[in-house]
Amino acid sequence: MKKILTSFTFWLVVMAGIVIWMHQIGQDSKSIILISLNPFLSALSKSEVSRTFMNSGPLVPCHTIMGEISLYWYIASFLSFTLIGIIVDILRHLIRKTLRNTNKSK
């Protein structure tokens, strides 16, 4: 349990859930936090082809200016936060392993 609570993946997934919840209740009515501050979703939203695909999913009602959003945006947000967490956890593991090996060789 301690290992899960100290992983970046866990906390970024929790953060993704909070961002999606905030968007649902209308605290992110212009999708600035959901899309614009997420580097992956921001890149997707700038391309006409990917934006059309992302908007083609089942619509979920929410308290935003548009009143609804495609479920694909929420799924992509969750997956991108998970991917970022996995990458950071791998980098942290590699750095710790490297530091341990350099300390052992001294």
Features:
about 110 residues, mainly alpha, elongated, two-stranded antiparallel ribbon
Task: Provide the fold topology.
Blueprint: H1 2-5, H2 8-24, H3 32-36, H4 39-46, H5 48-54, E1 59-61, E2 68-70, H6 71-105
Antiparallel strand pairs: 1-2
Concise structural overview:
By secondary structure, the chain is mainly alpha-helical. Helices cover 72% and strands 6% of the residues. It is built from six helices and two strands; from the N terminus they run H-H-H-H-H-E-E-H.
Structure commentary:
- With 106 residues, the chain is mostly helical.
- It has one domain (2-105).
- It is built from 6 helices and 2 strands, in the order αααααββα.
- It has helices at residues 2-5, 8-24, 32-36, 39-46, 48-54, 71-105, and strands spanning 59-61, 68-70.
- A two-stranded antiparallel ribbon has the order 1-2.
- A hairpin with a 6-residue loop joins strand 1 and strand 2.
- Helix 2 (8-24) packs antiparallel against helix 6 (71-105).
- The radius of gyration is 18 Å and the shape is elongated.
- The two termini are 33 Å apart.
- The relative contact order is 0.17.
Task: Outline the low-pLDDT stretches.
Answer: none
* H-E order: HHHHHEEH
* Average of the residue pLDDT scores: 90
Percent of residues in β-strands: 5-15%
**How many strands appear in the DSSP assignment?**
2
Q: What is Rg? A: 18 Å
Please give the domain count. Answer: 1
Structural class: mainly alpha
Q: Rough shape?
A: elongated
The largest β sheet comes out as: 2 strands, antiparallel
Kindly report the spatial arrangement of strands forming the biggest sheet: 1-2
Total helices: the number is 6
